[in-house]
Please model this.
Amino acid sequence: MGIDYVLDVDCTAKQRLTVEGIVNMVKARSRADMIIAMARQQGDERPPSQITFGVVINRMGNLERQEVSAQQLLDQAAALDEYRDDCARCSANRENPSGYGCYDAINYPLEPDAEKWLLSRLPTKLESAAGYMFKSAMEDFGWDGAQAAKMRAQGETFFRLREPPVRMWPGLTITGDQLFHMMFHVGHLSPMHAKMMCLFLGLLVIGEEDEEPVEAAPESDNGEQVIRFINALAYAASEQVNVLIDG
Model:
């Protein structure tokens, strides 16, 4: 479970397979690869068709457990192969050796180093061009982080930290919940919103450069996924494409 996002670059694969179809197939392939790798680590050399695991399916409120093989997941994802060469040539793939790099995800729960690192990338001085625009945006758009706060209250399902981290400036205080709101709870991100986030997070410099972020880059897998996301924002801003968000 996590935040799925797709760089909405039009291509034949999306036209034929649909965005939802591609996401489901990439997930199926990833799950199959993981299950096969785990089996091999345990000395299980059976073919994928004989490596099975249980899944729970919700059918109209009734939970049903089914056995699924790794081969079934690979078969489900097989349609991806037809467009893999085209995908490899697409800049939105971002050099993903498996193709379909326009899709990625950030897994829950969000780790502390990822949240703190994101906050640390916000403008150091509100008097800077980025700081002024950030403060104005916070006042104009009313990003209160209410939905993220509700998620955080559900234990460690979505956030590892029980209380959101805080960043303070003279006259302004924001929380990790508010930053999460502006990144993931405003619907799909337009190129303009992506550009704005790049400015706030230090990927785009206007005028005098700001100071370096306080926090070191996150080292958790979750943190690396967050870094890939803000790189995707930079791509979206540069190439004028939307970022489709499903969180």
